[in-house]
Design goal:
signal, four-stranded antiparallel sheet, 36% strand, globular, NTF2-like_dom_sf, 47% helix, Nuclear transport factor 2 family protein, 3 helices, alpha+beta
Length: 131
């Protein structure tokens, strides 16, 4: 009986694995596009990586990033990236970054990002600086 369903189970596992890998790549892409937008001072691309569901937080983030881009020189490099947890439409990632502001010495920042999936796209919902 089990032999009958074994090919179907194998196909199902392959499909789940491929879908998970695709989401993992999309999550990583969102984080890297966010950092790239910071380095280029590209407000529009930066905001494309942010969840729009909470309009007050979205607008506050936009105002903050516009102020930072206008008043500071920022250089950010990702040192490491890892997905801590992952479910159907949520993910938690850890990112270790090196950053410089206004030509100061390079500093290390450990970040935890929470992402949401909406209509097959991933967005950063919130972020925390870890010590």
């Amino acid at each position: 009986m089990l032999k009958k369903f074994l090919p179907l189970l194998i196909l199902l596992l392959i499909f789940i694995s491929c879908n998970s890998n695709n989401d993992s790549a999309k999550i990583k892409d969102v984080i890297y596009r966010n950092v790239d937008a910071m380095n280029k001072k590209d407000v529009e691309t930066y905001m494309e990586t942010i969840d729009k569901e909470d309009t007050l937080e979205y607008n506050t983030t936009r105002q903050m990033i516009e102020f930072i881009f206008k008043n500071m020189d920022i250089e950010v490099k990702i040192d490491s990236f890892s997905i801590i947890s992952f479910a159907d439409d949520t993910a938690r990632v850890f990112v270790r970054m090196y950053f410089k502001t206004n030509g100061e010495d390079e500093k290390i920042s450990n970040m935890e990002h929470f992402l949401l999936k909406r209509e097959s796209n991933w967005y950063i919902k919130s972020s925390n600086i870890l010590q």
